Amino acid sequence: MNRTARMSVVLVAALALAPLAFVACGDDPETEAQAESDARLAELAQQKQDLDAVREELLRLEERLDQARAGALPEGEEVDVTQLQTEIAQKDAEITTMAEDLNAALVEFINSNPPIEGEPLTEQHQRAFDLKAQEDMVLAEEYITEGGDYPRAIRIYQDILTYAPDNEQVKQALAHAETNRYMTQERFSQVEQGMTQDEVQGLLGPVNFQNRRDFPDQGVVAWYYPKSAARDAAGVFFRQRDDRWVVYRADFDAVAAAGENDEG
User: Where are the beta strands (DSSP E) in 81-141?
Assistant: First the structure.
C-alpha cells in the first residue's frame, strides 16, 4: 500500500519543531502549573495510545485484504474487497489527521515551556520528548517500509537525536538504516530467477518508488537498488507470468556510476 502522499503531509508536522527557545534562568514551576502540565502530558499520552490503536486496526484490515487477494481466508468466509479497500482508505485518513494533531500538540507543549539552558531535562520535558521521538520514529519507518526512502528516514533519525541524543532505540534504528541504505553483493546474491516481487522485497527491502522503471515496449519492470552515493545500482528485472511479475534477471552492475541504465 502506497502512503507516500500521507507521509509527506505528516512529515511537515513531525519536523515542525521550532528551535527550542532555551531560557537562561527561571524558578521552579508553581505546584498548580506543574499539575496542569502533568494533566496535559497525560492527555498527550492518551492521544498517542489512541493513535496507535487505530494503527493496529489498519494493520488488521490490510492483513485481511492480503488474505482475500491471496485466497487465504478461512473456509466459508467472504470479503467485499472494494468495501475493505474503502475502509482502509478511511482508516488511513483518520491516522493522518490524528498524527498531525498529536505532533502539533507536542510541539506546542514543548515550546510553551522550553527547557532551561545548561540544566538537565525535567521529567515532564523528557516525557514530551519521548512521545515526540516515538512518533517521529513511526514516520521514519514508514518512509522505509512504504517507499524504500532510506535517506529521508536517516534525516528524521538524525533530527530526533538533536533533541533526544541519548535515545538508544533511535541510535539503533539509524545504524540499521545506514547499513541497509546501499545494496551489497552478499544481500543481492539471494535473488533468484522466478521470485515474485513480494519475495524480492522480503530479501532486499522495499525499493524507492523513484527507482522503479517500466519498459512497456519490452514488457519489463525494473527495480534499482543504489550501491553507493555515486548513483551506481543493482537491478532486478521482472516479466509477467500469468498474473504475477517474476524475476527473469538480476544484475548487480545494472547501473554504472556514470548513470548508464541496462534496461533489461
Answer: none
